[in-house]
Design brief:
Blueprint lengths: L1 E2 L9 H5 L3 H12 L3 E4 L6 H9 L3 E4 L3 H15 L3 E7 L15 H6 L4 E3 L7 H13 L6 E6 H4 L37 H12 L4 E5 L1 H5 L3 H11 L3 E3 L19 H7 L2 E5 L20 E6 L13 E4 L2 H15 L8 H21 L8 H11 L5 E5 L2 H9 L8 E3 L9 H15 L5 E6 H6 L3 H7 L5 E6 L9 H10 L2 H4 L11 H7 L3 E5 L2 H13 L5 E6 L14 H12 L11
Parallel strand pairs: 2-3, 4-6, 5-6, 7-8, 7-9, 9-10, 10-11, 12-13, 12-14, 14-15, 15-17, 16-17
Antiparallel strand pairs: 1-2, 1-4
Helix pairs in contact: 4-16, 8-12, 10-12, 13-14, 14-15, 14-22
The protein binds thiamine diphosphate and magnesium ion.
């Protein structure tokens, strides 16, 4: 898994042909601008990783290919260098014969990537890789796959026969060269659409700006901040749009999100999909008459679920600059003394009161709000927050502020558990190479942590000073306490009795970290939380893990749901024949 960004060097093949092997390797690096390779090696790709290292690429050995892919995709998001996956496969002459690990990899990857191909000969590898890199970067960015047959890995090639002139031979004479492609062209929105968008905005009584991950990836932060401030508009971020404008910006209405979405009459949507995260842009969570001004890089995204009143197609940063140019001339600003602003501000104050009351509860075990309240007090303002889990991620999102763009990485659109540790490893690698002095804090639900928990060894192996906080409620959404677990175990086989959401109570995730030489803390109280987090944040030499035990039935602010304890009782009643009907939702 490679994060790469081609530059614009274009030396001719002839001059390179005379270079020494070492010069060639350097050239590979500068040409491809590949900095990191994440993966797991085995025959026949060990040499590929060694050749990459010889060419100056950092090779990060992970414990699982999934985590390697997550790490590479985080590099893509943080640095703007998309992912190219290179997979080793069966020797060509054994294909269809039932060779070791024979599988239609190219076909399988086609569904999940923008481009998937197996070069038919050594000579075409450079051009296939160039196409993979270009495709990954152009339009909406996305991963691409290139399959390298086992017998090609150690084969030699006659330079004069290589398709397209650009070629270098790396340390082991493996052709692993990406020929150079220009950075993606920048497209602007149609001028008429810009004017239409601004007149829709001027006519709005209850305008709202939504800032998505696309705006973060498109590095639109400077222009967007100016736009929001000049226009005086309320805004809220999507989960990974957090930090494009600071969460504590006076125009941020994230704490009144539901009301803002429900009542807005014009929504200016920057690089966010109208998918489940935004309730599809539909009633009952949106005003049925809302006008959407949709700004997106991807034409196919326009009109998904809601037909936009205005569609601005192109580079998000460039379009915000276009909007700003007209706005400055018009000298228009949404007034700050409207009923809309008062409604939003009242809701923000009311919600803050509820969260604060929960946060200041001094009971042990702690609840989510108490944990996040104290964590947020200690986190440096420029730290990168990685997060996954259900309650852990949702509540953490509302309570842990981001002040800088691309400083929040979470389970995102797919809600995929297991991404956290790979993301954190990638962020720590970037921090290390850029000497940015930013802490990487990985806030994990106990279930989420389990998906890629062995990557703790990777963190310890490379001394990556990630701080992992496992918010441990003994389960998926909810768990049970140790006492209840014991009682259940007495009743019979736990596979029939234990609620499917439960995990082992008070599991010692901290000892997973100490097993490999990192710091581990078992945390039950606010005082323990403060001292463990302070110690972890001051240690730049190795990773830490805080295993924060919380109330197993701790939940989000009141919702209609059945707790785990209620579920257990219903199971018990059912097993004793006392209850026929069980209603349960998790
Ligand atoms: C790959 C994958 N498998 C399963 C799920 C289903 N799922 C949703 S959230 C979750 C874990 C939530 O528990 P935890 O991480 O402990 O967070 P909590 O809600 O308890 O704070 C799971 C397994 C998923 N989202 N992704
Ligand atoms: Mg949990």
């Amino acid at each position: 898994m490679i994060g790469s960004q081609p530059g614009s060097d274009s030396n001719g093949a002839d001059s390179r042909a005379d270079r020494s092997r070492e010069e060639s390797a350097e050239h590979v690096l500068s040409l491809q601008k590949v900095e990191y390779m994440f993966g797991i090696v085995g025959v026949p790709v060990i040499e590929v990783a060694m050749a990459a290292q010889a060419a100056g690429i950092r090779y990060v050995g992970m414990r699982n290919e999934q985590a390697a892919c997550y790490a590479a995709s985080a590099i893509g998001y943080l640095t703007g260098r998309p992912v190219v996956v290179i997979g080793g496969s069966t020797d060509q002459n054994l294909e269809t014969a039932g060779a070791f690990q024979e599988f239609p990899q190219v076909e399988a990857c086609r569904l999940y990537s923008k481009f998937s191909a197996r070069p038919s000969s050594l000579e075409v590898i450079p051009s296939v890789i160039e196409k993979a890199v270009r495709t990954s970067m152009y339009g909406r960015p996305g991963a691409c796959y290139v399959d390298i047959a086992g017998d090609m890995v150690n084969a030699k090639v006659d330079r004069s026969k290589v398709r397209f002139a650009i070629i270098s031979l790396s340390f082991y004479d493996i052709v692993l060269v990406v020929s150079c492609c220009p950075t993606p062209p920048v497209s602007l929105a149609h001028h008429g659409a810009i004017t239409e968008a601004l007149s829709a905005l001027r006519a709005a009584k209850k305008p709202l700006v939504i800032i998505g991950k696309g705006a973060a990836y498109g590095r639109a932060e400077t222009a967007l901040r100016e736009f929001v401030e000049i226009a005086g508009l309320p805004f809220l971020p999507t989960p990974m749009g957090k930090g494009v404008l600071p969460d504590d910006h006076p125009n941020c209405v994230a704490a009144a999100r539901s009301r803002a979405l429900l009542q807005a009459d014009v929504v200016l949507l920057f690089g966010a999909r109208l998918n489940w995260i935004l309730h599809f842009g539909l009633p009952p969570r949106f005003n049925p008459n809302v006008k959407i001004i949709q700004v997106d890089l991807c034409a196919e995204e326009m009109g998904n679920n809601v037909s936009p009143a205005v569609a601005l197609l192109g580079d998000i940063n460039a379009i915000v600059i276009q909007l700003l140019e007209v706005l400055r001339k018009d000298d228009w600003k949404y007034p700050s003394d409207t009923e809309w602003w008062s409604t939003l501000k009242d809701k923000i104050v009311a919600n803050a009161k509820i969260s604060k009351a929960l946060a200041l509860q001094s009971t042990v075990p702690m609840n989510y709000y108490t944990v996040f309240h104290h964590v947020s007090q200690l986190l440096p303002h420029d730290c990168i927050i990685v997060s996954e889990g259900a309650n852990t991620m949702d509540i953490g999102r509302t309570m842990l502020n981001n002040r800088l763009p691309r400083h929040r990485l979470d389970a995102g659109t797919f809600g995929t558990m297991g991404v956290g540790l790979g993301f954190a490893i990638a962020a720590a690698c970037v921090e290390r190479s850029e000497h940015s002095n930013q802490r990487i804090v990985c806030v994990e639900g106990d279930s989420a942590f389990g998906f890629s928990g062995m990557e703790v060894e990777t963190m310890c192996r490379y001394n990556l000073p990630v701080v992992i906080i496992v918010v441990n409620n003994n389960g998926i959404y909810n768990g049970v306490d140790a006492e209840t677990w014991k009682e259940m175990a007495k009743m019979g086989d736990l596979t029939s009795i234990a609620p499917p959401v439960t995990l082992l109570p008070e599991a010692r995730y901290d000892e997973v970290m100490t097993a490999f030489g990192g710091r581990g803390f078992l945390v039950r109280t606010v005082e323990e939380l403060h001292s463990a987090l302070q110690l972890s944040l001051s240690d730049w030499e190795r990773p830490s893990l805080l295993n924060v035990l919380i109330e197993p039935s701790s939940d989000r602010k009141p919702q209609v749901t059945v707790t785990c304890q209620e579920y257990i009782f219903s199971v018990i009643l059912r097993s004793t024949g006392q209850n026929e009907k069980i209603h349960c939702s998790f």
